[in-house]
Design brief:
Structural class: mainly alpha
Oligomer: single chain
InterPro entries: TPR-like_helical_dom_sf, TPR_rpt
Strand content: under 5%
CATH architecture of the domain at 319-431: Alpha Horseshoe
Shape: globular
Signal peptide: 1-19
Low-confidence stretches: 1-24
Organism: Flavobacterium cellulosilyticum
Keywords: Signal, TPR repeat
Number of helices: 25
Radius of gyration: 24 Å
Protein name: Tetratricopeptide repeat protein
Mean pLDDT: 93
Helix content: over 70%
Length: 431
């Protein structure tokens, strides 16, 4: 009996060690980001505000110096990026509009700046008009072609986007590298997209350009996460924070790793609760609602969704959250008709596979699976590698008994569970 007892104890100990080792395999997030979470000062925000105060005083003394308006607008844009407060984005637009009107739309740099502002506002058609204005003037063609590529990608005009990308070809140019990386991501070639972003990062590091390093590090964090390289993703977010301790985007990325990969909803919520105080945007409520859904906490999920919609009612975000609203409205039959309306607006704004997916998903949720299938097969299938869209596509196939079409999509979706999150992971498995 003693011998059997000893064997049992040894087996139990071995099982415990193996269980712990298995569990530790999924631990990526450490405490090394904690200091960044509680940074008290915000140098980028304070610097931008100081620049605004300086140039505003200069402009007040000499209102004829219209060039000051662009400098003010640039710093208001930086405040928007740093705080998430959309009033700064609108203020930048107001200043750039005034500048362009004064110049009678003859300065290509100012025209392009307003175009980029409109992209941030999801006013893509207006951004395209401005890009074409700059193109017609002819000055600074390469910079205008970069803007055109960005707008055309947003509008789903991939043919012309590719033409403008080919006109930029320069393997040593940072702006070209990040755009050709985006193009390869669009084509579903994630490995090449990462490789090109790494080359862009090499350029940023070689030139010791802080803002470009922040940009590439954070994007490499995203891309590696999408490719399943969670440790590399985490390391790049830490590199982002080393350059910019106030970078809430990187901290949000770490929160997603804690939630989606480690299933540590407590830590994910802790991160979000801290960073949402200094970068107050509606999407944080959506993330908290996702976490609450995973925890089967219906009360917290409803509270966070209510806070999300309340913020949208309090602050005018224009079309910036249309996609999220459509997906949320579609989940409830009583509001699914609203989702359909938004989807139609989005198609008018930007006829991309993403927008058509919203339309198909809305019809599916309204009970019209056949119409959903027709839209998906014409405008979504084979036209996007986005996992969320392909999850919708597989679900619509299932509703139409097209079982043979589901298997290859499901295989790819199972590789994207980190990107999609734990809630969709369960649904994918049941496809």
């Amino acid at each position: 009996m003693k011998t059997l007892s000893k064997i049992f104890v040894l087996l139990l100990a071995s099982f415990t060690v193996l269980s712990c080792n298995e569990k530790n395999k999924n631990i990526i997030v450490q405490t090394d980001y904690n200091d960044f979470l509680y940074v008290k000062d915000n140098k980028p925000r304070d610097f931008a505000q100081g620049e605004i105060d300086f140039w505003q005083q200069k402009f007040d003394k000499d209102p004829e110096q219209i060039s000051y308006l662009s400098l003010l607008a640039s710093n208001y844009s930086k405040l928007f990026e740093n705080t998430g407060n959309v009033k700064y984005l609108y203020k930048a637009a107001e200043l750039l509009l005034k500048s362009n009107e004064t110049y009678h739309y003859t300065k290509v740099g100012t025209i392009r700046s307003l175009g980029r502002n409109y992209i941030s506002q999801h006013r893509f058609k207006e951004a395209l008009v401005l890009a074409n204005k700059a193109l017609k003037i002819g000055e600074g063609m390469k910079e205008t072609q970069k803007l055109l590529f960005d707008v055309q990608m947003e509008l789903g005009d991939y043919k012309n986007a590719e033409k403008n990308l080919k006109a930029l070809t320069d393997s040593s140019d940072f702006d070209y590298l990040i755009r050709v990386s985006k193009w390869n991501d669009h084509l579903g070639d994630l490995k090449t997209a990462i490789s090109l972003m790494e080359k862009a990062n090499d350029v940023a590091v070689k030139n010791d350009n802080k803002s470009l390093k922040i940009w590439t590090y954070s994007n490499l964090g995203d891309l590696n996460g999408h490719d399943g390289n969670i440790q590399k993703s985490y390391d790049y977010y830490l590199k982002t924070l080393a350059e910019d301790p106030n970078n809430t985007y990187a901290l949000k990325g770490i929160a997603w790793i804690a939630f989606s990969y480690e299933k540590n909803s407590v830590e994910a919520n802790r991160i979000i609760d801290v960073i949402s105080q200094r970068h107050h945007t509606p999407d944080f409520y959506l993330l908290k609602a996702q976490i609450a859904e995973y925890e089967n906490n219906d009360t917290a999920q409803k509270e966070n969704l209510a806070s999300y919609f309340n913020m949208l009612q309090t602050i005018n975000y224009g079309a910036m959250y249309n996609k999220y609203n459509a997906l949320l409205y579609a989940e409830d039959k009583s509001t699914a008709a609203k989702a359909l309306e938004i989807a139609k607006i989005e198609i008018d704004h930007r006829p991309t596979p993403d927008s058509y997916d919203l339309l198909a998903w809305s019809y599916y949720k309204l009970g019209d699976a056949k119409k959903a299938l027709a839209i998906s097969e014409k405008h979504v299938a084979g036209k996007s590698f986005e996992p969320k869209l392909n999850y919708h596509l597989a679900t619509i196939y299932k509703a139409n008994n097209k079982k043979e079409a589901i298997a290859p999509i499901k295989t790819e979706l199972l590789k994207s569970t980190f990107e999609l999150g734990p809630n969709l992971e369960k649904k994918i498995i049941s496809l």
